[in-house]
Amino acid sequence: MSSKKNIFFKTLKYIGFFLAAILVLMIATPYLFSDKINTEIKKIANEKLNAKLDYSTSNVSFFHHFPSLTVTLNDFNLNGSAPYENEKLITAKEVSFGINISSLIFSKTVKIDEIFLSKSFINVKVNKDGFANYNVYKAETKTTEKKQEDSALKLEKIVIENSQIVYDDLSTKLHLDIFGFNYLGKGDLSKAVFDLYSKAKIDKLNLLYENEPYLMNKKVNADLITKINTNSLSLLFEQNDLKINDLLVDFKGKFDFLKEGYNMDFILKAVNSNLNDLFTAFPPKYITWLNKTDLRGKTDFLLTLKGNYIASAQIAPELNLDLKIKEGFVNYNKSTTPVTNLNLDFSTKLPSLNPELLIVDLKNLSLNIDKDYLKTKIFSKGTSVPEIDAILDTKIDLEKLNKAIGIPDLELKGMLIANVKAKGKFDQKNGLFPVTDFELNLKNGYLKTKYYPNPITNIEVVSTISNPKGTFDDLKVTTKPAQFTFEGNPVFVEADLSNFNDLKYDIAAKGTLDIGKIYQVFSQKGLDVKGFIKADLTLKGKQSDAKKGNYSKLKNSGTLEIRNIELASEYLPKTFLIKEGIFKFNNDKMRFNTFLASYGQSDFKMNGYLQNVFNFIASKNGVLKGFFTLNSKYINADEFMSSTVTNTTEVNQTTAEKGVIVIPTNLDLQFQANAQKIAFNELKIKDAKGTLKMKNGSLSMQNTGFNLIGCNVAMDANYKSNTTKKAEFDYHIKATDFDIKRAYNEVKLFREMASAAEKAQGIVSLDYNLKGRLDANMEPILPSLAGSGVISVKNIKLYGMKMFSTVAKKTEVDEIKNPEINKVDIKSSIKNNIITLERFKFKFAGFRPRIEGTTSLDGKLNLKMRLGLPPLGIIGVPLLITGNKDNPKVKIGRKSEDLEETEDSSD
User: Fold this and answer.
1) Three-class secondary structure of residue 355 per DSSP
2) Which of 420, 558, 669, 762 could in theory staple to 796 by disulfide, Cβ–Cβ 3.0 to 4.6 A?
3) End-to-end C-alpha distance for the chain, whole angstroms
4) In Å, how far are 512, 530, 562 from 515, measured between CA atoms?
5) Pairing of strands 261-274, 372-381
6) DSSP per position, 380-427
């Protein structure tokens, strides 16, 4: 007995010694090999990574991820690869690398076979050209393979705990946010081809495409088997079971990394799933709806994405989606009339992710509510010129439907009966419209939303659309009647329209509509509309009669009163506000009585008429004609400059660029205008009067007079916008007795064209023709300027002008330093950035100077001057003036070189 005890205690002692020895080794090993391990970690970072790596401290231990021996890097930061080398790819509280113990003891190098990330943030970025920040690991080369065994990552296990991942791909416009990410991956990652066994859990997944949310706050559980080929950078998803909230999904596919993109072949499938489970994978607003809804039925779901994605070559894969619902049942909030027999067979194809190639095929959508029913089929191909094949047959109580499916924040009532058949192409350019037979009847309609307390009631619509031959010629639309009541005001509309290539119309409208209040019924965040319309109109006629001027055949009459209406146009960057306007229709004319409007800081009061209004509205080629008297206290013309929105950065931030004032080509309008003040391009114009004409995209001003810098100016001008960034102009201007010093200080164009007049004083008159081009800031393109005219000098003093100071110094004649010029006409012309001065003479202090030559608009000089000496100027000194206005150079002589011309290259 005692011998057995001794054996037991000896065994226990040896086990204790063995365990103690192991414990001592586990404690000692990190200290013994810590230098070697840290050296090898730094060596791997230097040799294997082409990105910056930082960490605060490191420690080696068996106990941090027992039983693995790990080196832990605290406060870990790894930057991305180009073009994101200055931005973080991975940040983590700690990253641990598992060390292969046998390589530590028996090998000259250290091999890492495990990685542990804890509380990490992984920030993956791909720019618009397809270049990513995750290419931080240097690829092996044949040369390095032949060397002695190297330090390497021979991974067999990857563990990620409580981490966050952001994937932002600007090339595909795909964005992923992953929160609470936990991952365990196992496999021999050292092999060229290996299977990676993975378990992943995500607390919250957000997926956005083109900034539109598709999955939000979804929980994901996944068991994955992925075959990875490191030689070809290929991923093969062989057996993958995903659970997105309650929806079980089978995921298979292949993903290959190409030089500038990807090759994808993904299949996401759910077969015979519960309809309720499918909706748990939808965005959060549907989850709220689902909590109150009894949802039954079976569904099949198939999503495929196949093909190359190479952003630089504009190559994209094909997206296919198929969805089927069988024998569905929907009952929101225990409605007494649920939706039954819900069946859906829907598919869509998007080749090359190109909307122009989109195919939508709704093979069947049908449902019942009691004895009511809805049946429809829709097929469409393309977007710009869609090919359509649609059938709708329904008789349904909208109130029952609304209660059964629980449309949020919306009350609908009324009996809707509709029968629709449409087949063919919609091609407005070629006059094609689908063959259509459309009948719609809505009785006792009612609409109320959460945005406004009162409903739209008494909605009655009886409408037919027929088109037996598939052309705009045969299209006929009838609405008799259409009516509704809002805020106690009834509105009635009847319309009979036919032959949309030469529109024949018969329209009657009567009622008062508060646009501000009715807009609130359909409120949309970020927009606001105000104002009201009161109508009592009868419009009857044919488009061709309006176009040809057969006004006696038109029967347009009645009044239209509008107040506080805001209008937006693609040509104007600001909103045009009509404060008050009463319009009277009389055949072809729409007369304006007491029309008050504003645009930004500008105000307008108009009386007059518009002509050809209906042809203008109904036809894309219609021209709006009219004549008005226009009065304004203040016009800020700079506010009419168009703006163009452009992308300026990789993250699709947008900025508005300036553009020229655009005159629409479909206007033929004439204004007899009077404006007390006009601000334009730093000019302050007063008491402007004249005739303005808009026609064929051009603006002309005739017999225009105004006051500028205290001088009365007469001007005729023409302006035409060629694009939103370029325009051309020409004008003839005549200004009498203006102050040259004030002109230099207040008129920018004068400063640019007469830069030498900086310190001049006196009175000058101008009679000049000028034409040229304007840039996007409505600034003149100087080389494009061309013109000629006369500057008449009445009495001018050229104090401190460096040219004359230099002449005085060169000739030792101080009297010429600050000359005075009186009653001299200076003729000049402008072309290719050069101003040519014709010969002119003047007298001053007994001297008789004579000047001719050229100057450039940027201040360069090439002038010839003869300084006639007292008493009669018979004897003169020939001078050549070159250099520029700030540094003129004067020499005695006549020989000179021409200034270099700058031709206009702005076309």
Assistant:
1) helix
2) 762
3) 113
4) 9, 6, 10
5) unpaired
6) EE-SSS-EEEEEEEEEEEHHHHHHHHT-TTEEEEEEEEEEEEEEEE-B
With a CB cutoff of 8 Å and minimum separation 6, the contacts of 213 are: 206, 207, 283
* Residue 156 DSSP SS3: strand
With a cut of 70, say whether residue 352 has pLDDT above it. yes
Q: How many CB atoms lie within 10 A of CB 842?
A: 18
pTM: 0.60
Q: Give 261: exposed, middle or buried? Use CB within 10 Å, 0-12, 13-18, 19+.
A: buried
Dihedral of CA 99/102/105/108: which sign? negative
What amino acid occupies position 65?
Answer: H
The mean-pLDDT minimum among 4-13, 195-204, 632-641 falls in 4-13
pLDDT value for 288:
75
H-run or E-run covering 29: helix 2-48
Classify strands 234-244 and 212-229 as parallel, antiparallel or unpaired: antiparallel
Burial class of residue 112, CB neighbours in 10 A (0-12, 13-18, 19+): buried
Amino acid at 466: S
Could you report the per-residue pLDDT of 632-686, keeping only the tens digit for each? 999 887 787 655 444 433 334 444 456 788 888 888 889 898 989 888 777 788 8
Is there a contact between 70 and 98 (Cβ–Cβ < 8 Å)?
Answer: yes
DSSP E strands, 532-601: 532-542, 557-567, 576-586, 589-599
Question: Looking only at Cα atoms, what is the longest distance across the chain?
Answer: 152
Tens of pLDDT, residues 474-518: 999 999 889 999 888 899 999 999 988 888 889 898 988 777 666
Separation of CA 527 from chain center: 17
The gap from C-alpha 76 to its chain's centroid, in whole angstroms, comes to: 38
Q: How far apart are CA 377 and CA 344, in angstroms?
A: 10
Q: Give the mean pLDDT of 453-477.
A: 91
Token pair 């929160």 is found at 179
CA-wise closest residue to 152 among 142, 160, 144 = 144
